[in-house]
Amino acid sequence: MRYVNKPVRKKDAMSLVTGKPVYTDDITQGSSLVVKLLRSPHAHALIEEINTERAKKVSGIECVLTYEDVPESRFTTAGQSYPEPSPYDRLILDKRLRCVGDPVAIVAGLDEKSVDKALSLIKVKYNLLEPLLDFRKAKDNEILIHPEDNFVSLVEVGADNKRNLCSSESMNIGNVEEELKKCAHVIEETYHTKANNQTMMETFRTYTSIDAYGRLNVISSTQIPFHVRRILSNALQIPKSQIRVIKPRIGGGFGAKQSVVSELFPAIVTWITKKPAKMIYSRKESFTNGSPRHEAEIKIRLGADENGIIKAIHMYSLWNAGAYGDHGPTTVGLSGHKAMTIYNANAYKFDFDVVYSNTMGAGAYRGYGATQGFFALESAVNELAAKLNMDPTVLRMNNMLTESSVGKTMPTYYNEELKSCTLDKCLKKAKEMISWDEKYPCRDMGNNKVRSVGCAVAMQGSGISSVDVGAVEIRLNDDGFYTLMIGATDMGTGCDTILAQMAADCMDCEYDSIVVHGVDTDLSPYDTGSYASSTTYITGMAVVKACESLKNKIIDAGAKKLGCSVEYADFDGKSVCNIKNNESISLIQLANDNYVGSNNYLSASESHYSPTSPPPFMAGLVEIEVDKLTGKVDIIDYVGVIDCGTVINPNLARVQAEGGIVQAMGMAMYEDIIYDRNGRMLNDSFMQYKIPSRLDVGNIRIDFESSYEPSGPFGAKSIGELVINTPPPAIANAVYNATKVNIRSLPITGEKVMMGMLKNA
Amino acid sequence: MQIKLWINDKEYVDDISPDTILLDFLRSKGCLSVKRGCETSNCGLCTVLLQGKPILSCSTLAVRANGLKVTTIEGIQDEASEFGGFLADEGAEQCGFCSPGFIMNVIAMKNELKNPTEDEIKNYLEGNLCRCTGYMGQLRAVKKYLEKYSDMKKGA
Ligand code: FES
Ligand code: FES
């Protein structure tokens, strides 16, 4: 392998670092209508009257749209394969407003000033309804968020809009109650994780226009171009054939852009006016009406025998969908299925309710529910270790999946067979790297400072088994270079690059001989999109398959030219050779010949799906310093050791890991969407919603313990989401080891630590 | 009102409304590297140089640049590629949306601080947020880049 497992530069690196205009707003600089929304000031209300007459008269205003102007059938904005598990609970504009910021009217005009003026002239009479803001009270509350009759759930996920349920299910393996009775130790606690905003640096944005064929063209900062096509077709009630979606470079997504957020509004404006339109979300809008992580309350019962061998795990996840059900039924599933699977036990129980409330609708955020589940379960496991007076790393070694578990069926993971795992090696190496044995549990540094260490392990999946589809097409061009057409979405993650690395090794050619093409739904082969950690594993395999079939075609064509049979033709990346007489024809010659008077243009297209979703694993250990006088926690060192199978690009994988860990540090320590009594988000700017800066993250060190995943391309599994799961429980554990205070509700603020210490004293 | 300024050494005379923000003015003149990431002067994405000193163009009125020289990454492509190469070799430009502002500030730092310590580097660049990379790769790149210059000095 010349390129796989090498730190190759990203294909687009130099244009990004020299500031080239490659993002949505940069490539759509011509004149277009400015689109903005009038948003609801109320968390729960009905529009009784809306008067747009004066607004429409403002000079420069092209159109003002209200609920009367949009199609009446519901859809979901969640980017998922059809039929989507997320209920069809939205309209582009609705008479019923379900959270602060819900769109009331769309205004489009020539410039921002006229649009702002028009917005201020729209008169709305609201019928105020009592809001339901506490998701703990949502189930079977008499306040209904979605009383409408045309609410539909396409998939059986236990949705019931008359009970405020977006989804509800339960799973039983073995008899948890019986097992718990036999256990010497049972931890029974409730853990609470908050809604967090992805805060990708490029906010939501979309440009729409009508092309020469009268079709709607959409250029959007999205992770899911093909799903955008379907969702817009549902929302606007126009055929998919009338829509083309193009994805330029994206300034980050992290799951936020796995929902349709900014696309609907310029799309309907353009479809109605036939004029180009653009909508750019402000940072504030991205905060107040984005697609944040689901807030969750997870109850755990964890039972073990006197030696600390885990026997039973019961998790109940209560999940706040907020106003709309995007990704509700699916994220919640990961909180149990991913978290519990990492531990061997005799019995498991997992049940959940995903409820509607009058807070902002949630969505997908890196980790996709597993992050919440791991905070809860890993915290419980750490509490079990403390109860047994056991080193939590030792307790894990005795209970978790290890290299010797390979071949085992995982009952909580849809009975998939574990084919690769080095989690034990990861934990061992991480302990060495951070000098765990010398530092555990804590050291007094004098000066009222205590340094301590904390531990967590985690897994994720690689794609959604039997659902995600990745396809690529690879073409041989004249002069012998290849075009790799990819339907997966590079959102900065570097998938264009790693797929090209794989293709270069498959075709035995230079990395620079592979040119890649970003997603255009008219041109690219179908791909479900970049989410669920699917790209390397699923689309990567499609690359391997497509290259294999192109190689066969090259050999075929070469053999014909050489006048030999295919068995005797061999291709080494540069030429096809007749091994009987050493005659050969170069790839360049072959390629060029195929461009003149030939029926033999060589290209291959393959798609791939996987019946399994092999888990990557990670051990995360942290060292922190706690100030005993104030409760303030500083991160000193974070060590992550990862089994993502074969590492396709060590640089990109390392930066993925470092980035995910830092995001999770924010989640662990301060990121927290808070609402006032009326349901208005209070901290809707970077001033108030603090994300980690480079001064906040201490040192981070990453290493790999590669396994080989037989079903993955070159033995690879995923990495992108896994890396966000360990920091919250590891930091909570370190806080306990320093202070004997268990923080079970994120974020872990100095105040909570201090209050806990005072209570213990 | 009329203003006259130099963007990347090119003179511009323009009639603008007094509330025009420098960021928007620069983008309207084709400096599309300049990005906006917030409305509260917290992210650093919009960093450009005014008379060689880094400023936040999102919170600067265009008139403030009247008679002065503005530099964006479009005007220092060679330096940007040089440092950018270090960044690329770490894989530390992920989505790249924060890169122009970050790189402008790195270049300003290189001109301003002599042999900065790691803490000084972090402090200087603190205002440049990045949500993708976790900052470590950026730090590795900055150190290697600065090392190259201190090596050159040592060699000289
Ligand atoms: S745009 Fe955020 S600081 Fe200027
Ligand atoms: S690389 Fe994406 S924000 Fe920095």
From TrEMBL, chain A:
Q: Cross-referenced InterPro entries, in alphabetical order?
A: Ald_Oxase/Xan_DH_a/b (IPR000674), Ald_Oxase/Xan_DH_a/b_sf (IPR036856), Ald_Oxase/xanthine_DH-like (IPR016208), AldOxase/xan_DH_MoCoBD1 (IPR008274), AldOxase/xan_DH_MoCoBD2 (IPR046867), AldOxase/xan_DH_Mopterin-bd_sf (IPR037165)
**Domain Aldehyde oxidase/xanthine dehydrogenase a/b hammerhead: where?**
18-130
Report what the protein is called: Molybdopterin-dependent oxidoreductase
Q: Do you know which Pfam families this protein is assigned to?
A: Ald_Xan_dh_C, MoCoBD_1, MoCoBD_2
Instruction: Provide the alphabetized UniProt keywords.
Output: Molybdenum, Oxidoreductase
An example Gene Ontology molecular-function term = oxidoreductase activity
UniProtKB/TrEMBL annotation, chain B:
The terms under GO molecular function for this entry are:
2 iron, 2 sulfur cluster binding; metal ion binding; oxidoreductase activity
Pfam families to which the protein is assigned, alphabetical: Fer2, Fer2_2
Q: Which UniProt keywords apply?
A: 2Fe-2S, Iron, Iron-sulfur, Metal-binding
Name of the protein described by the UniProt record: 2Fe-2S iron-sulfur cluster binding domain-containing protein
Domain 2Fe-2S ferredoxin-type positions: 1-76
